[in-house]
Amino acid sequence: MRRLLLLIAAALLTSALPSTAEEGRIPIFDSGSLDGSAGPISGRYVVTRDIVDTTEGNVIFIDGTGSENVDIDLNGFSLTGTFSPAAGDYPVIIGQNLGSLVVRDGSLIGDSTRSGFACINCKVVKVEDISVKDVNYGVALIEPVSFGVRRCVTDNTNLSGIYVSGNAATTTSGTIEDNLVENAFETGILVQTEINGVTVRRNRVRNAGLADGAETDGIRVATTGPAEITRNTVTEVLGWGIDAQVESCSITGNIIEEAGYDGILVAPLFAVGAATNCRISGNVMVSNDFYGLRIDGDGNQIDNNVMNNNAVYGIFFNSGADNNSYQGNIVVDNGTQCILDLGTGNTALAANVLAGSPAGCP
Known about the structure:
This protein is mainly β. The chain has two helices and 36 strands. It has helices at 10-16, 18-22, and strands at residues 26-28, 32-35, 43-47, 51-53, 60-63, 69-73, 78-81, 93-109, 117-135, 139-142, 146-150, 153-157, 162-165, 173-177, 180-184, 189-192, 198-201, 204-206, 219-222, 227-230, 233-237, 242-245, 249-252, 255-259, 264-267, 278-281, 284-286, 293-295, 301-303, 306-308, 313-317, 325-327, 330-332, 337-341, 347-348, 353-355. The model is unreliable at 1-22 (pLDDT under 50).
């Protein structure tokens, strides 16, 4: 395992980085590993220059014993991995088996065969203010307990820009907010598998789903819930703009335009016709290739949305989607008709504006 060159001698710290030495941070100026089995690795680290690694493996590899707390400040610099392995994904930075890992403020660049940042079995993970480009996953978190991904930019990812997967044996919750995800060949932001509470807000996803036939949504949350999906902007994606497969959720204030399927899909996690109990409010779904809003679950409240100029229906209630209510929505100029209701017990309440579709508006 390669050495991670850490300047810990007082003379070197004083001559090379006096300011960071005074702050108690440990400089990193080359690629390599932090190995918890070889001694304590908890601490605050700072990258001191751009690092380019041309060998197979990770630029920075961090392996803990379960309790270490590591904070890495990229300090505005970039870490680049240029080697293309025949098999395997070697993220630019990977951490595993840590109490906590924080990575912030810099750039991760791959060669389209490795991911940007990954953390596996890290209890607390924070990824903030990083830019990731030309990778598989931009940010991938596997089985965290608590997570936050904030103010990051991902561009040109073979898979998802941001990916989080939970663990049925633990309670996982976290926040994905204020990120920009562009040119993801699969789903832009993907959250799945036993996440027990997630907030996805103020993200921008553009041009996701370039790999036709794969998972190609703008934002997909497929987990037990609850989920809050709010104030996101999704444009030009191949699949659904927002795909919420949850048991309870709040979907509010989002803008979805030019999705290849529907603007928003709300569905039970396992089967059409189960309760989803979501509130879908204040969203704008326009110019999508199928429906503005598709409902596959029961007990949803749909109010004050705009669903205009979608290719087929403004709102579609699938067979088995029952006991939903809708009011105060504007559903205008959709390609076939305003609303198609194949469920039972769905109720139109007050002040819906329905107009301009060739097959009519109930």
